[in-house]
Amino acid sequence: MTATIQDVAKAAGVSVGTVSRAMNNYPDISAKTRERILEVAKELQYRPNLVAKSLSSKHSRNIALILSGFLEDVMFNDFETMLMKGCYQFAIEHDLEISMHVINTRIQEEKSYEQLCYEHNIAGAVIFGLKNTDPYFKSLEESRKPCVTIDVEVSGENVSNVTNDHVAAFEELTQYLIDQGHRNIALVCGRKNAAVTAQRMEGAVNAMHRNGLELPKEYIIYTNFLKEEASAGVAEFIREHGKEGVTAFLCMSDMLAVGTIEALKGAGRRVPEDYSVVGYDGIYVTEYTDPKITTVDQNIKDKGYEAAHLLYDMIEGIRPAQDLILPHKLEIRGSVKKVDA
Amino acid sequence: MTATIQDVAKAAGVSVGTVSRAMNNYPDISAKTRERILEVAKELQYRPNLVAKSLSSKHSRNIALILSGFLEDVMFNDFETMLMKGCYQFAIEHDLEISMHVINTRIQEEKSYEQLCYEHNIAGAVIFGLKNTDPYFKSLEESRKPCVTIDVEVSGENVSNVTNDHVAAFEELTQYLIDQGHRNIALVCGRKNAAVTAQRMEGAVNAMHRNGLELPKEYIIYTNFLKEEASAGVAEFIREHGKEGVTAFLCMSDMLAVGTIEALKGAGRRVPEDYSVVGYDGIYVTEYTDPKITTVDQNIKDKGYEAAHLLYDMIEGIRPAQDLILPHKLEIRGSVKKVDA
DNA sequence: CAGTTTCCCGAAAACGTTTTTGAAAATGTG
DNA sequence: CACATTTTCAAAAACGTTTTCGGGAAACTG
After folding, report:
1. CA pair distance A151, B151, nearest whole angstrom
2. Does the nearest atom of strand C lie within 7 Å of B16's Cβ?
3. Which of B59 and B111 is assigned the larger pLDDT?
4. What does the pLDDT look like over B75-90, one tens digit per residue?
C-alpha cells in the first residue's frame, strides 16, 4: 500500500517521532536530519494519514459545513453552492480540511451538534439552512463547540452569526422603487412566520412610511417562498386589484420575482412596461430571465468565505463569537420602469 | 467531553471489545449483555468516534465525491449540486459517510488519487468535472482504489463510467427540430476538442444526414461553453447569414441556448416566432427563461445516485467496473415553433 | 574542566476504535 | 459424569499518527 510513517522512519534510520517532527516543522530537530527525512519521505511518496492524524492530534484542522434541508428543497441550488464555494475557498487558502454534512430533523434528533463534531473530530462548523423549528436551533445555544450560523439569529456563548442587514437592504430596495416613481406597490411575501420575512417586511414598511406611503393589507401576497405560489398569488391579485393602480411588485426573493413575472406575462402584461418587479437575493437566475431582474445581491459566496474565516478565528481564539453583517448591493437590471409620480 | 467506548464499558461492567460487539451487532455476544450495553450506551449518549472507527476498521464505509474545477467554473451551480444531492441521497439511505474534495491541478500534481484515498481512509470515489488535461485523467487507469467517473471515458481495471448516450440524445434532439419542419439549422458548439462536443456533433450530423440535410461549416459557431461567447457568436452569425433561411439554433448546452436567445432578442428577433432554439442538459434555468427552453434532461441527480450506487457495489464486490448509460429525456418546452417544411 | 544549559532524538504513551486470540463457562453428547 | 463442543467474553494487539518524557551529546559558562 502507501508508505506509512513507520516506513519513512525505517528508511531514514530514525524513530517515528522524529519523522513526525520533521514533517510538521517542529523546532526540536536539526536541520540536517529534517532535510534527510523530507527527502526520504518524498522518495517514498509518503503522505500522512489524516485520519490517524486527526485521532492523535489535540488540535484539529477540520471544520464542517452543515446543511439543513439540503435534500428537501429542490429549488435553490445556487445558494448552497455559492456558500460551499466560499467555504472551500477559505479552507484551501488556509490548509483546512472541510467536511460537509447534510442533516434533517431525524439526524438532529439522533445526535446533538456537539456529538456530530465529536464523531468526526471537528473543531467547529458553519451551519446553513437552519429553520427555527429545527432541533439544533435551540440546542446550539449551549454548545461548547464553536459554530457560525448563516442568516439565522441564535444566541449562545460559542455561536456567531453571519448575515446581511436585511432590514436596511430591503428598505433600500423599496426606496429604489419609490424613487422610480412607484406609489402603489404590492408585496410578495415569504413564509409568514419566518424571521427573514419579518425583517424584510420591516424594511419595506419603513421605506414606505418615510415617504408617506401605506401598504394596504390586501396588497400583501403570502407564499412559502415557492415560485408557484407567487405565480398563483399574483395572478389572483391582478384579477382582483388590477384596476387599482398598482405599478410594482416588491418580492422577498428572486424566485418569487420569477413567479411574479411569469404570472404577469401569463395575464398578458409586460414587464417592466406595465408592471415593475424587483427581487431579493442575487441568485444567478436573475441574469437569465427576461427581463433581467433588479435585485439585492447578498453575495453569498463572500458570506461563506467570511463565515469560514470567522469560525477559524473563533477556533484559534483570535476573535470571540460575534455577529457579522456583510454589505449588500443593489443590482439594477431591467425589471423596473420609471413612472411619473 | 462526550462518552467514549471506555466509559460505556466501565459503566456496563464489561470490556471495550464487548461494547464494540454489542454496538455493531456481532453474533458472539449474549442477547442479555447486548441489551444491557445498549441501554448504558443510550444512557450515556454514547456515539462512536468515526475517526477512530475508520482508523481501526479494515473495511471503510467512507466514500468520496471528488470535484475538479469546482472553484474555477462560476457558471454551473446546478450541475454539481444536483450531482451532490444524488450522491448524498444514496449515502444517507445506505448509511455511508461521504466526504467532498475539491481538487485543482496543483492538488492533483501533489498527490495521486490513491494517495488521496489513503489520506482519508476512503474506499472509493465518484469523480466529476475531470478534464482530459487533468493529471488524474491518465493516472486513474492504474488505480487500485475503485472509482466512478461522470461523463468522461477513462479506461482502467477499477474505474467505471456513468454517462448518457450523448450521441443518441443529441440525435433525438436534432430529429425533433427536423420533425418540426426545420431544414436550415445552425449549431452552437462547445469547446472544440472536448469529448462531449465531438459526441454531440456526431449526433447532430447523424440526424441531419439521415434526413438528407447538410450542416454547412459556416453554420457552426464555436464557443468554450460560455454564454457570452454564444451571444457574440450568434449576433455575428445573424449579421452574416441572417438572410439565408436559417430557422433554428441547436445548442450544445442550456447555457449556450440562454446566450443564443439573448443575442436573438438583442437583434430584435423573437423566439420562437422568428427562430427556434434548443438546449441540452436540463439545468433548472431552462424553466425560468422566456421562453422556457426545450432541452434534453440528463437527470443529473439520478446520475449522482447511480454513480454512488455503482461505486458502492464495486467496493462490496457486487458489481465489477462497468460503463453505465442512463436514460435521457427530451423536455419539450416553449422555445421551438413548428414551421412549414 | 566541572557544572549548567541547550539541542536532538528515541521510547513509549496516548487518541478511540476493531479484531484476533484464547480461555472460562455453559451446553451438549454418549 | 467425562469429554467435546459451543457460547460468551476479557485481554491485548493493531490502526498511523502526535506528544510527552527523559536522557545523552554538544555547547556554553565561570
Report:
1. 36
2. yes
3. B111
4. 567 888 999 999 999 9
Percent of residues in chain A assigned helix, strand, coil, to nearest 5? 45, 15, 40
End-to-end CA distance of chain A: 76
Determine, for residues A119 and B258 on separate chains, whether the beta-carbon distance falls below 8 Å: no
8 A C-beta contact, residue A269 and residue A238: yes
Q: Is A318 on the interface with B (CB under 8 A)?
A: no
pLDDT digits (tens, 9 = 90+) for A314-338: 999 999 999 999 999 999 999 999 9
Rounded CA separation A137/A159 (Å): 11
Query: CA(B80)–C1'(C24) in Å?
Result: 57
Determine the Cα–Cα distance for residues B83 and B304; give it in Å rounded to an integer.
4
Domains in chain B with CATH codes: 5-48 (1.10.260.40), 59-164+300-327 (3.40.50.2300), 166-298 (3.40.50.2300)
Interatomic CA distance for residues B69 and B132, integer angstroms: 12
Q: Which of residues 18-47 of B touch strand C (CB under 7 A)?
A: 19-21, 23-24, 46-47
Closest-CA distance, A210 to chain B, in angstroms, reads 35
Q: Model pTM?
A: 0.92
Q: Give residue A10's identity as a one-letter amino acid code.
A: K
Whether residues B51 and A47 touch (CB distance < 8 A) is answered with no
